Amino acid sequence: MTAQQHDPRRGESHTPGLENQRTHGSFGGYVVGYIAAMLLTIAAFVMAPSTNMAPFSIEAGLAVLAIAQMLVHLIFFLHINTAPVQKTNVMAFAATMLIIAIVVIGSMWIMAHLNHNMVPMSQVMQMQR
């Protein structure tokens, strides 16, 4: 039996297909990710108090920077990519994003309907008199 084979009696195990894969990124990749994250953070802090743009443009710009920041972290630090060995990580990430979207959208929908259906405070005060 060679060293590459799996022997269940010895308790050794390995993930198939990962014999020649690195589990972590390179130092250069981390530096590039760090610089990109810092630039995106600085851009957000510069954009937020800006008075040169319309408020909706600032909000849209901050949303774009937030998505870019998330992608930088996923790619450079969490090493999520489209490689076949990353299939479970990508699926777990997609399921997490789906759950977060359901919670956020559902909460906004409930709050909007509660706000629409609530009795105004002036009527509540008149009913108590």
From TrEMBL:
Q: Which InterPro entries match?
A: Cyt_c_oxidase_su4_prok, Cyt_o_ubiqinol_oxidase_su4, Cytochrome_c_oxidase_bac_sub4
Q: Which residues cross the membrane?
A: 27-48, 60-78, 90-112
Give the location in the cell: Cell membrane
Q: Please classify the protein's predominant subcellular localization into one broad category.
A: membrane
Which membrane topology term applies here? Multi-pass membrane protein
Biological function: Cytochrome bo(3) ubiquinol terminal oxidase is the component of the aerobic respiratory chain of E.coli that predominates when cells are grown at high aeration. Has proton pump activity across the membrane in addition to electron transfer, pumping 2 protons/electron.
Under what name is this protein listed?
Cytochrome bo(3) ubiquinol oxidase subunit 4
Tell me what organism the protein belongs to: Dyella agri
